[in-house]
Structure formats: C-alpha cells, structure tokens
C-alpha cells in the first residue's frame, strides 16, 4: 500500500474552495436573504410609483395576491390573464434555466474534484515508488560502505602481516 502524502496548502485551498462552492449551491440561506431584501425593495416601490396611479408589485416570495393596478379613485383592476400567463411562463423559463446552470456548475465542480483526486492518487503512487527507490539506494549505500570498510581492514591486515 502506498504511503499517504500530505496535501500541500495550494491543493487544500483548491479543495476547500470547491467544497465551499458546492455547499453554497445547496444552501438556501443566500436565497432567503435576497428574498427579504427584494421584499423590502418592492414595498418601497409600491409607495413611490407615481402621483396618480400606484402599481403594486409582488415578489414570488410573498403570499400576496396577483398584481393589480390601483386607480386614484380606489377601484382595483386585475391584470389581464395573458400578462399573468406570460409572466408565469417567463418565471418558469428563468427558473428552469437557473436550475440547469446550477446543475451544470455542480457537475463541473464534481468533475474537477474527481480530476484532483485522480491527480492526488497519481502523485501518491509516484511518491511511494520514489520512497521505495530511496530505501533501496540507502540499503545499497550501506552495503557498499560495509564492503569498502572490509576491504580497508583486509589491506591493513595484509600490510601488517607482510611487514
């Protein structure tokens, strides 16, 4: 089994970024905070639309009735059905496009994670091979030092006997 290597800071930052992006795509909190800001903006628009005619706008996040025009006399008229239908269809198309973009982005991030994990596995395998080569070289070095030491001792013994 190859030895596990430590992930360097750059690789860790990349993986942390990918994980954060995946979490942000599945976390509903950013959408809720945006919705609250949108509701308050729409409420302000309702009061500052103009002098004679006030148009009440409703967000998809509110439970208010369909858009209506309020005339200065106080009478209300519902929006024509074709405008409602067009708006609903436009919202459906936009939501579908957003879901598709989100799905594509998640897929890209998952592919990137898989590629990084494969690269990490390749690097770990190379590291294990290099560690084995190093151990083999150290053993060979130790053996050669021992052989050299024995040869030096043998020469000294031969020189001592011949003198």
Automatic annotation (TrEMBL):
Record flagged with keyword Coiled coil: yes
Q: Where is the composition biased (Polar residues)?
A: 66-76
Task: Name the predominant localization.
Answer: nucleus
Task: Give the location in the cell.
Answer: Nucleus
Ranges for region Disordered: 66-92
**Where does the record place the BZIP domain?**
81-144
Key words, A-Z: Coiled coil, Nucleus
Which SMART domains does this entry report, sorted A to Z? Answer: BRLZ
Which protein is depicted? BZIP domain-containing protein
State the organism named in the record: Hypocrea virens (strain Gv29-8 / FGSC 10586) (Gliocladium virens)
């Amino acid at each position: 089994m190859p030895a596990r290597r430590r992930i360097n800071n750059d690789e860790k930052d990349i993986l942390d970024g990918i994980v954060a992006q995946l979490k942000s795509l599945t976390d509903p909190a950013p959408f809720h905070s945006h919705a609250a800001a949108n509701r308050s903006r729409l409420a302000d628009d309702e009061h500052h639309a103009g002098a004679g005619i006030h148009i009440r706008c409703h967000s998809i996040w509110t439970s208010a009735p369909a858009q209506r025009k309020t005339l200065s006399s106080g009478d209300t008229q519902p929006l024509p059905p074709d405008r409602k239908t067009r708006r609903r269809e436009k919202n459906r198309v936009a939501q579908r496009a957003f879901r598709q973009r989100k799905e594509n982005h998640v897929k890209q991030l998952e592919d990137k994670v898989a590629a990084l994990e494969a690269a990490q596995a390749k690097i770990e395998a190379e590291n294990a091979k290099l560690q084995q080569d190093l151990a083999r070289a150290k053993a060979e070095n130790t053996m050669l030092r021992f052989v050299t030491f024995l040869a030096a001792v043998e020469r000294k013994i031969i020189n001592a006997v011949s003198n």
